[in-house]
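FAQ
Q: What does a multi-component entry look like?
A: The components come first, one per line:
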Amino acid sequence: MRTPISVGNWKMHATNAEAEQLAESLAGLSEVDGVTTVVAPGFLQLARVAERLRSSGIEMAGQNMHFAATGAFTGEVSPRQLAEVASWVILGHSERRRYFCENDAALKSKIEAARVHGLHSILAIGERAEERQAGHTQVVLQRQLWGALEGLDIPEGFVVAYEPVWAIGSGMPATGEQAQDAAALIRAVLAELQGDAVATSARILYGGSVKAENIAEFAAQPDLDGALVGGASLDAEQFLAITRAIAGAKRA
Ligand code: 13P
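Then the predicted structure of the entire assembly, as tokens:
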């Protein structure tokens, strides 16, 4: 049995006041059983959101981090600092890869650093539109997984988020079938890289224009264990509806 996960990535949205209000709304809604619920506010809002959500059962994530425990890296956040307020970290998001030149070597170091500092990684991978159109989706996902994970010691229950770049923020989600095909491939590659125990216990999330209205299609897929939600996670009712739908589908 894999515990499903619902993750809200708040990206660079929400001021302190907006983040507190959102946290307040989430805390006011009843906890959802049978699903791990995680939110990733901006770094400046993490501590105060953590405080608001302290007794809610909702867990905290960073949206990125440096791999070094400490050092002269102006503008960065270390795993040691992040672990004081969060138990999760999103790594390799396509926005990090695209706008901030995140490469496989850095990503690998970050995944290892997260493990050392007791943080759970959420490794995000996904192909661009032109890569899918050219029929390269499988090759891209394989390359990203090998690049990030080869030679590392990955724990059971490791989380990979399949986020096709073309579906992020576009209002054009993948179909359930496309997401399931990608998730099955991810599981097969994890088996090659890390063995069957890691592959079968890994939680694979779908991300890209997830809404309360379309989550059922993804939650129904056998290899998908939840969602990584951007825009819709800024609306407490939407995010809770998505989280409930994941729990309901995976309990059934
Ligand atoms: P949207 O849900 O806004 O498409 O964003 C997805 C995403 O990038 C989550 O990390």
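Q: Is there any commentary attached?
A: Sometimes. For this entry: The mean pLDDT is 96.
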